[in-house]
Write a structure and sequence with these properties.
Layout: H1 3-14, H2 21-61, E1 67-78, H3 87-90, E2 96-107, E3 110-121, H4 127-143, E4 148-153, H5 157-160, H6 162-175, E5 178-184
Parallel strand pairs: 1-4, 4-5
Antiparallel strand pairs: 1-2, 2-3
Helix pairs in contact: 1-2, 4-6
Length: 188
């Protein structure tokens, strides 16, 4: 038990059960416990983020000629909104989905960056959409001299499902690109 929670718990035990202060201290104990959990969650997030960043840097530092790292994700939908719109009216709206793929490639001894943005009205964010986007991105990268790629995404279900991963490997092979690996970053 962390120090602060233990101290508040110790104070709580020393107070008479009928004391009006007992309720306030019980609330303080609950708040301390919640905050300690939040701090631990944040620390775990920092460790995962640092490990993910190290993996990204390692891939880029060890690039061979013609290798590329693609970091991709669906962005927040572009939604029509009103000035001073209530939050309850904001969620659940239909809008334009945006998917971004950021490519870092080593070509001609230099690093190049390119962003691929895909917009679609009412696009369902699923495996079919991901495979279609992958096909277009890999095709364009091949046309620009990329020979092999590393893929990196979050752990959303439409990225980590076996049908997407296996299909991307087959697509890449047909396009003429080698997939060196698929790295998942921060968990959802």
């Amino acid at each position: 038990m962390p120090i602060l929670t233990a101290k508040v718990d110790q104070i709580l035990e020393s107070i008479d059960a009928s004391s009006p202060e007992r309720y306030r201290i019980m609330r303080l104990l609950e708040e301390c416990q919640w905050n300690e959990r939040a701090i631990m969650e944040y620390r775990m997030h920092q460790v995962r983020a640092a490990a993910s960043e190290l993996a990204r840097r390692k891939i880029i530092d060890e690039f061979e000629e013609g290798e590329c790292l693609i970091i991709w994700d669906f962005s927040m939908k572009i939604l029509p909104c009103e000035a001073n719109e209530k939050q309850s009216n904001f969620y659940g709206k239909k809008g334009v989905s945006m998917h971004a793929a950021y490519a870092i490639a080593k070509l001609g001894g230099q690093l190049y960056c390119h962003t691929f943005s895909h917009f679609a009205q009412d696009l369902v964010q699923n495996a079919i959409a991901v495979v279609g986007i992958a096909f277009q991105v890999l095709t364009m990268l091949k046309e620009n001299g990329v020979k092999s790629v590393f893929l990196r995404s979050d752990t959303a279900a439409y990225y980590r499902c076996s049908s997407v991963i296996s299909t991307i490997y087959v697509l890449a092979q047909k396009i003429g690109i080698v997939v060196n690996g698929y790295v998942f970053s921060e968990s959802q």
